[in-house]
């Protein structure tokens, strides 16, 4: 059975599918939409404000008022995902909306495509390299045609893509209102293990070893050798978890983007996302977005078998030596991501 179908069956048990008109409003606070009531699937919530791209329908119009039957069927799944986010934000408003107004710095993860009226919030360790490659193709106006011809390091050069924080406040407002906004999410602990493996077990990541590895070893390892304190290149996963749940860490500075929570990177309780893609249905969701943008006939999400990909089985093994107390405290850090994006509590967790 397809992952998307399994998700629909699971979500049917926890939320009602809304196919009729429901209340939806956007409250503009400085330059943010602080909305807890999201638009419904069957009608365009933005009315006549959406301007068609060169005479064609915008992605938002195609999403909320699809002309193709296959798009309409997929839209039901994405409406359910939006509802899940909305319900979680409402139920956890004290946690999810601590900050009433965000700053321009909070918008630095939102990549803008003017030509196709898209805003993509990138989340590290959730296929963001390939999605940045796609955004470079979409915004390159013919400079690129094959996303996989773009080197990975070039995809992460900030100057190659424009982010929402680079616009004026009126321009930000217009794009938040008129462009289709989307993000991709992943099972939180699988993403965390992926970040650990990439940043602390690969010898080439010297900058992470120096900035974070040395700090983690100094705080979490008793009787650390001078070599370990100097190099910071042999951080154990148990030490990494202890660092994340340490109150001193959370007071000192925000988490690095590779292990920061998705709700803190993309602010889905403040910004209404029209589509929530999932790593588990990555190709299907990505190509749906490209189809909505009107480029699906000639641009597809890159597919290739990645032998080093972090799996659920791998994640289970990494958590085997984490104490029940530390597992519980770590789950509390990422709890909103689990709830907001409909991920079950992992069966391997020993929560207290």
Automatic annotation (TrEMBL):
Protein location: Golgi apparatus membrane
Tell me the leader sequence span: none
Q: One Pfam match, by short name? A: Sulfotransfer_2
Quick check: keyword Transcription in the entry? no
Q: What is its EC number?
A: 2.8.2.-
How does the UniProt record describe the way this protein sits in the membrane? Single-pass type II membrane protein
Name the enzyme's class.
Answer: transferase
Q: Which UniProt keywords apply?
A: Carbohydrate metabolism, Glycoprotein, Golgi apparatus, Membrane, Signal-anchor, Transferase, Transmembrane, Transmembrane helix
Q: Which residues cross the membrane?
A: none
Q: Which domain of life is it from?
A: Eukaryota
Which family does the record assign? Belongs to the sulfotransferase 2 family.
Protein name per the record: Carbohydrate sulfotransferase
């Amino acid at each position: 059975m397809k992952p998307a179908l399994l998700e629909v069956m699971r979500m049917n048990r926890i939320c009602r599918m809304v196919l009729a008109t429901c209340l939806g409003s956007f409250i503009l606070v400085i330059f943010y939409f602080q909305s807890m009531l999201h638009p419904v699937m069957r009608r365009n919530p933005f009315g006549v404000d959406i301007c068609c791209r060169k005479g064609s329908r915008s992605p938002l119009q195609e999403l909320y008022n699809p002309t193709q039957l296959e798009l309409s069927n997929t839209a039901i799944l994405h409406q359910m995902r939006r509802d899940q986010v909305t319900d979680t934000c409402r139920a956890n408003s004290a946690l999810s909306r601590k900050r009433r107004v965000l700053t321009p710095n909070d918008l630095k993860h939102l990549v803008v495509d003017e030509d196709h009226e898209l805003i993509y919030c990138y989340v590290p360790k959730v296929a963001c390299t390939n999605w940045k490659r796609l955004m470079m193709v979409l915004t390159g106006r013919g400079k690129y045609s094959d996303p996989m011809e773009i080197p990975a390091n070039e995809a992460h050069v900030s100057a190659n893509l424009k982010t929402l924080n680079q616009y004026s406040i009126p321009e930000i407002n217009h794009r938040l209102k008129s462009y289709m906004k989307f993000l991709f999410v992943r099972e939180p602990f699988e993403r965390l293990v992926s970040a650990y493996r990439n940043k602390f077990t690969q010898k080439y990541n010297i900058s992470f070893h120096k900035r974070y590895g040395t700090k983690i070893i100094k705080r979490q390892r008793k009787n650390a050798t001078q070599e370990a304190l100097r190099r910071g290149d042999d951080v154990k996963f148990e030490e990494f978890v202890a660092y994340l749940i340490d109150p001193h860490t959370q007071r000192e500075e925000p988490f690095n983007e590779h292990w920061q929570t998705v709700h803190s990177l993309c602010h889905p309780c403040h910004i209404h996302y029209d589509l929530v893609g999932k790593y588990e249905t990555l190709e299907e969701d990505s190509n749906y977005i490209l189809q909505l943008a009107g480029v699906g006939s000639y641009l597809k999400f890159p597919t290739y078998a990645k032998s080093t990909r972090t799996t659920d089985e791998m994640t289970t093994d990494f958590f085997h030596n984490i104490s029940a107390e530390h597992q519980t405290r770590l789950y509390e850090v990422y709890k909103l991501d689990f709830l907001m994006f409909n991920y079950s509590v992992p069966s391997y967790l020993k929560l207290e």
